[in-house]
Amino acid sequence: MSVFFSSISETNPVKPGDAEALLATLGLTISPHESRDFHTLLAALHDCAENVLALPDYQPISDQSKYPRENVRRCSDEEQACGQAWAHRFLIRGNPNGGALAGKSVSLKDVIAVAGVPQFLGSDITPAWTPITDATVVTRVLDGGADIIGTSTCENYCHSTSSFTSAQGVVENPHAVGYSAGGSTSGGAALVAAGLVDITIGGDQGGSIRVPAALCGCVGIKPTHGRVPFTGISSGDALVDHAGPLARTTLEAAACLDVISGYDGIDDRSLASPAPGSTRFAAALREGSGRLDGFKIGVLKEGFEHTLVDSRVKILVSNAAKNLTDLGATVEDVSLPEHVHGPALWTILSRIAGTQTLLGHNSGRRGLCMTEAEQGRLPWTSESFQRAFPSTKNVIINGLYLMSHFPNIYGRTLNIGRQVSDKYQSLFEQYDALVMPTTPVTAPKHGKRDRRPLESLQPSMGLTLNTAVFNVTGHPAMSIPVGFTPAKDDTTVMLPVGMQIVGGLWQEEKILRVGHAWESHFDWKKIHYSGDKTSKI
Fold it and tell me: Counting Cβ atoms within 10 Å, is residue 1 exposed (0-12), middle (13-18) or buried (19+)?
């Protein structure tokens, strides 16, 4: 210890009284006879930090000789699609020897690191930063034979399920201009639904894959927590972080999930995931009968009965669930009262951990920290905070309030969240899958960025009613399109409706089988709500 103290530099900026000033912010003090010792300890800590910062960073090396980046550019208006769905366009050609994704085009949510490609994160709080490494999922889809053709717009710091909050521009629903594409994987869902890419890899922290999939009419799967490594993806809260695919069919989503799953030796969230390349989700669908004989499916009462669930959405999803009986499944109503606690539990966890992440205080995980992004954002200034979208400001305000006024609530919420997860697991001992509406309503109209906070946030409110709880519990959940219903404000505008299929932990194959069987026998594009029933066209 004495050797350590003797190494304190003469230029060390720590001054007597600094320890007292730090404690004063918490209303704490130290006695005068302790002050000198704590000053010495603090000065030694400062030098320790300076020594660490002087070491070179350690990030995975991007193999750009094998996978060069071609023509990286910000899109012109002529090249844009679905409003401003593209963040950057480029081409990275996949493995020429082919693979499970050979011939597929992929876009990446603009929170997924691609070395040499600027990343906006949907914001203009700070200038775009340029990663020096590739996310694990990037390398895996390239190894799987897919071509990556761009990054797609995401919502402002991923803090919205709308599609008008990105600083890069509004993303339009491909079925109706003026309506939300959902978020925060807004651009990717729109591009998939519009047929401009085959697959998007998105991030889901409360519904950000499933909500846009439902509103745009495509398939989106949030896998079991940890199945897909989050390495190289900007994080909000490691507890609720999930990455997964959006595609036009369940089979395409399954093939992508096969490719991107498995522990990568870096992200501790994926420690329990099977070895990379060991899953056979797509093969199981191809080899299966396309039927659901012996399957038992629960229609979750609480997922339908909330007052926010539009009656037309309820009817379409109820009828889609009944269709599963035609495929051999037993379908029956089931109740889990704890489901309704999901939004509150998610809000507490995501506000506290989200604030810590935004302020650079997150800790306790083993993984990759993208230090370039952190360095660009921190420290927050009054100017950068004022540029933030109201949803990001709200996260910080909420998180600081909770940590100040409810210092033990995070731990209590974790415990209750685990209890709710256990309740679901008990249900999955009886049922192979649960179904419910993905979102309570179809795509709302866009809000406006320049309105007051409540007006700006209103279009997103309630959309994660049935999705956020599974980010807390970690269960795999998928949205598939099951028909159209008229927009609430215009009966001439027809918008997609999504059905959420949820399975037990690590039981993705079951929900994929349910989704694949349904879409193999029923054409969602021909199912329209008509009066108090559905009709085929």
Answer: exposed
How far apart CA 495 and CA 449 sit, in angstroms, is 23
Distance between terminal CA atoms of the chain? 80
Q: How many residues would you count in the chain?
A: 537
Q: SS3 for 54? A: coil
Q: What is the pLDDT of residue 373?
A: 86
Q: Which of 104, 109, 314, 510 is labelled catalytic?
A: 109
pLDDT value of position 5: 54
- Predicted local distance difference test score (pLDDT) of residue 11: 87
Rounded Cα distance, 367 and 376, in Å: 20
For 179-208, b/e burial (b = at least 16 CB within 10 A) is bbbbbbbbbbbbbbbbebbbbbbbbbbbbb
Q: What is the pLDDT of residue 1?
A: 45
Task: Identify the pLDDT of residue 7.
Answer: 64
**Catalytic, out of 62, 152, 166, 184:** 184
- Local confidence band at 377 (pLDDT 50, 70, 90 cut-offs): confident
- Burial 133-161, CB ≥16 within 10 A → b, else e: bbbbbbbbbbbbbbbbbbbbbbbbbbbbb
The rounded mean pLDDT for the chain is: 95
pTM (predicted TM-score)? 0.95
Q: What is the architecture, at CATH level 2, of domain 70-344+411-536?
A: Alpha-Beta Complex (3.90)
Alpha-helical runs (H) found in 194-276: 210-216, 250-260
Task: Say how far apart CA 533 and CA 517 lie, in whole Å.
Answer: 22
Are the CB atoms for 486 and 493 separated by under 8 Å?
Answer: yes
Taking residue 29's Cβ as centre, other Cβ atoms within 10 Å add up to 12
For the chain, percent of residues with pLDDT exceeding 70: 98
Is 208 one of the annotated active-site residues of the chain?
Answer: yes
What pLDDT digit, counting tens, does each position of 275-306 carry?
Answer: 999 999 999 999 999 999 999 999 999 999 99
> What is the C-alpha to C-alpha distance for residues 450 and 433, in angstroms, rounded to an integer?
42
Kindly tell me the number of DSSP H helices and DSSP E strands found in the chain: 18, 16
Dist. CA 317–CA 214, nearest whole Å: 12
- Between CA 243 and CA 225 the distance in angstroms is 9
Distances (CA, A) of 394 to 38, 382, 462, 504, 507: 36, 15, 16, 33, 35
Confidence of residue 533 (pLDDT cuts 50, 70, 90): low
Residue 8's pLDDT band (cuts 50, 70, 90): confident
Domain with CATH 3.90.1300.10 in the chain: 70-344+411-536
Q: Which of 198, 315, 308, 211 is nearest to 259 (CA)?
A: 198
Q: By C-alpha distance, which of 232, 286, 237, 287 is closest to 260?
A: 232
pLDDT digits (tens, 9 = 90+) for 384-411: 999 999 999 999 999 999 999 999 999 9
User: Is the preceding peptide bond at 56 cis, omega within 30 degrees of 0?
Assistant: no
Q: Which of 208, 235, 273, 479 is catalytic?
A: 208
